[in-house]
Amino acid sequence: MIPESLARIEEDLRIAVESQRYEDVQRLAVLFCQSATGHVRELPPRGPEVKVIADRVQEVLHWTILMARTARASYAAELRRVVMLNKYLHHVGATPANMQVDV
To answer: I need a labelling partner for 24 at 20 to 30 A (CA). Which of 13, 30, 31, 82 fits?
Structure first.
């Protein structure tokens, strides 16, 4: 079973990732790992609870990285669209004053 304090940090971390608050993500990821390490040190070596906590840490960090990469890819795609639109607008002589781009 995952300790309640570790579960609370995990929940805060997931909320920060979903909200794209990356400074909080960095702080909470470190706190999550430190908390997991502290709990594991209190357990008997090679006990089943150690594996449960280690598996949870690995899953949460993998999910966090995946979500951050997905957000980064989405932002990069948006920037490419804006750059392409700007090139098109300058090429056809359209004036940006009459156009609005939602980003």
So the answer is: 82
Q: What domain range is 48 assigned to?
A: 4-97
**Two structure tokens written together for 6:** 């570790």
Contact 49, 96 (CB under 8 A): no
**Alpha-carbon span 23 to 16, nearest angstrom:** 9
pLDDT value at position 22? 93
Domain count, the chain: 1
Q: Which amino acid is at 82?
A: V
- Backbone Cα Rg of the chain: 21
List pLDDT tens digits, range 7-29. 999 999 999 999 999 999 999 99
C-beta pairs of 24-31 under 8 Å, 24+ apart in sequence: 25/64, 25/68, 29/61, 29/64
Q: Which amino acid is at 81?
A: R
CA proximity to 35, closest of 7, 68, 66: 7
User: Do 42 and 6 touch, CB atoms closer than 8 A?
Assistant: no
Q: Confirm whether 66 is domain-assigned.
A: yes
